[in-house]
Amino acid sequence: MSDGLRRVEPGDTLTLHFALRVNGGGEVDSSFGDAPITLTLGDGTLTPNLERWLIGVALGERHVFQLDPLQAFGEYNAELVQSLPLSDFPPDEAPLADSVVEFSLPNGSTLAGRILALTETHARVDFNHLLAGLPIEFEVEIIEICRQS
To answer: Could you tell me where in the chain the CATH 3.10.50.40 domains are found?
Structure first.
């Protein structure tokens, strides 16, 4: 772009304010009113779906993006709701209904699941992102752009 403004490129380290809201609903997360966050595109702080909306945004600009579920956190997938035996949970951490639990995966990463319901022997766990299937409003204000040389 030839307007002379510095714009976000893949791999940049950014200092920014952001807000996530469900369209027509309340705020889910925001740094506005607090300290801005610093992240490097591609470091996993934001999902790739959200990162791609930052590419091309100019330093100092503030944008609000209206995203459908596929552009944000994906469609809700009923197959990601599973029944797990309570023995899969650490004995000192009994699951609670409507809580979010981090599960360790064999490759060393973690996966969050929301406990939907409990029986005497099993927990019904939803592994969809909490915002899956919802239209999202993603607001950003770019404060600083640092390029890797």
So the answer is: 13-74+132-146
Q: What is the pLDDT of residues 84-140, one digit of tens each?
A: 999 888 788 788 999 998 888 888 888 889 999 999 999 999 999 989 999 999 999
DSSP strands (E only) in the chain: 13-22, 27-30, 37-40, 62-67, 81-85, 100-104, 110-118, 122-126, 136-146
Q: Report the CATH number of the 78-126 domain.
A: 2.40.10.330
Edge to edge, the sheet with strand 122-126 lists 81-85, 122-126, 110-118, 100-104
Give the model's pLDDT for residue 36.
Answer: 94
Q: Please provide the CATH number assigned to the domain covering 13-74+132-146.
A: 3.10.50.40
Average pLDDT of the residues in 29-41: 92
